[in-house]
From TrEMBL:
One of its GO terms (molecular function) is integrin binding. This is Integrin alpha-2 domain-containing protein. It comes from Hippocampus comes. FG-GAP repeats lie at residues 21-85. Transmembrane segments: none annotated.
Length: 133
């Protein structure tokens, strides 16, 4: 019966969610890092275990990386421990200065057969080392 009924059907179709409120899996990261902005379930093909990939696009740079803030990606086992995630070393020290690129803003896992992971960045500001001083 017109646009109003189409809108009502659309709202009802979007009311579903996949959040488990009885047995939630909680992981925590540092304040201000946007830890959890992106999350992907990943199957480690070597160990055949499922892991969570968690993006923290406002994470500070790793030690040895000539930047203040790069973003980061964490890998978390599926456990009840909220603080057992570890950061993946994705930026090599000595590369060009990468500042505030929002590493980990989007994540995706290929799953079998290859088990590859896609990690994207939002912005990329490259500063020549000779002009950084």
């Amino acid at each position: 019966n017109g646009p109003a009924s189409a809108c009502a059907v659309y709202v009802l179709a979007c009311a579903a969610s996949n959040i488990d409120t009885r047995f939630p899996l909680l992981k925590t990261g540092a304040d201000g890092t946007l830890f959890g902005l992106s999350v992907a379930l990943h199957l480690d093909l070597k160990s055949r275990t499922h892991l969570l990939l968690v993006g923290a696009p406002r994470e500070r740079a790793e030690p040895g990386v000539p930047a203040n803030r790069t973003g980061g990606v964490y890998i978390c086992p599926i456990t009840s421990d909220q603080s057992d995630c570890r950061r993946l070393p994705l930026i090599k020290p000595g590369e060009d200065l990468v500042e505030d690129m929002w590493l980990g803003v989007t994540l995706a896992s290929e799953g079998p057969p290859g088990g590859r992971v896609l990690v994207t960045i939002y912005s990329y500001f490259l500063m020549n080392k000779s002009t950084a001083a």
